[in-house]
Write a structure and sequence with these properties.
The chain is of the alpha/beta class. The chain is 43% helix and 9% strand.
């Protein structure tokens, strides 16, 4: 059985095995341009009409769907951010990140030779050393949530110190949370200065700025916050912490993606996008991939520029792949995450 590529629908490999297999020059940021920020406006009804079309008209089937789902796995930040996380749980999470799909399914799909992994493993700072040791010898980076995650309300010096300690412990990516109050009060200079300091503290580690879209109050504030974070040097913009009442949705994701597209068109710098929180079904992953491909092009469907923040999504994707191979849906406990 052969799988069809997401790129050009020829029978070849669907995806790269890990985020680090691709390289994009990091966004250096730029001076805060308030003229650009003030000019940002969002037509919410047009955004919703656009996203409503993605779940139906853009659906892929059969071998095309299997290929897209394999691509989605490689773009996944497999995540555990629980108060009862233990080293054993994180070790199991990392084992799943290294082998996200059962070997018999990979062989039936004809892709066992691709060594498919998730894009990263995302954990709290305390679990970074455990994850780094468990992933040693792989290309899978460890991402650490930082800066007082999830609220971001600890003193600035402590948030910066947390970043520095996570990087020293081996984290290659830092998911930072912005101070929502700066957005709610339209204090764009304060937001810019904060994210710029976080970017400097990260050093060589890539920065994903969590916008917390469900707590920002309006579509225009989401768009402006996204742009300010990119101007300050963010490598990725991310929707949510996963703890807000409303997390990633297609409309807010499209708003953020179009800001990333505008930033690229005007500066030449590529910034990635990470929807997180509430993405649990394979059909949602397909809709997000369709949006990224149509709005940004194929490069933004690869892990160096696109990630899902997910914990339960992988189980449903693996069930869908088994259905493609066998024609039957299996119980969720046949596809454990950890």
């Amino acid at each position: 059985m052969k799988i069809v590529s997401l790129d050009d629908r020829q029978p070849k490999s669907p995806a790269a095995p890990a985020a680090s297999d691709h390289h994009v020059e990091r966004n250096p940021g730029m001076a805060l341009d308030m003229g650009w920020i003030d000019a940002i406006h969002v037509n919410r009804s047009a955004v919703e009409r656009r996203t409503d079309s993605l779940g139906g008209r853009r659906t892929v089937k059969k071998e095309w769907q299997a290929a897209w789902l394999l691509r989605a796995i490689t773009c996944m930040d497999l995540t555990s951010l629980l108060g009862d996380d233990t080293p054993g749980r994180i070790q199991r999470l990392c084992a799943k990140a290294k082998a996200p799909v059962r070997q018999d399914l990979l062989e039936a799909l004809g892709v066992a030779h691709l060594n498919i992994t998730t894009g990263a493993v995302c954990v709290y700072h305390e679990m970074v050393p455990t994850a780094v040791r468990a992933l040693e010898g792989t290309n899978i980076p460890v991402a650490a949530v930082s800066t007082g995650f999830p609220a971001g309300l600890s003193p600035l010096k402590y948030r910066i110190a947390e970043i520095e300690e996570s990087v020293a412990a081996g984290a290659k990516e830092i998911d930072i949370v912005i101070s929502r109050r700066h957005v709610l009060t339209s204090n764009w200079q304060a937001l810019y200065d904060e994210v710029k300091q976080f970017r400097e503290a990260c050093g060589e580690a890539h920065v994903k700025s969590i916008i917390a879209t469900g707590e920002l109050g309006s579509a225009e504030k989401i768009a402006k916050a996204s742009m300010v974070c990119m101007m300050a040097g963010s490598d990725f913009i991310k929707t949510s912490t996963g703890t807000e009442a409303v997390n990633a949705t297609m409309p807010v994701s499209l708003i953020m993606v179009r800001q990333a597209r505008d930033y690229f068109e005007r500066t030449g710098w590529k910034v990635g996008f990470k929807p997180a929180g509430g993405i649990t079904q394979a059909k949602q992953a397909l809709a997000y991939l369709a949006m990224m491909k149509e709005e940004m092009g194929d490069e933004w469907t690869r892990p160096h520029l696109f990630r899902f923040g997910a914990s339960r999504l992988l189980g449903d994707i693996e069930r869908q792949l088994e259905h493609f191979v066998t024609g039957r849906y299996s119980a969720a406990n046949r596809h454990p995450i950890g």
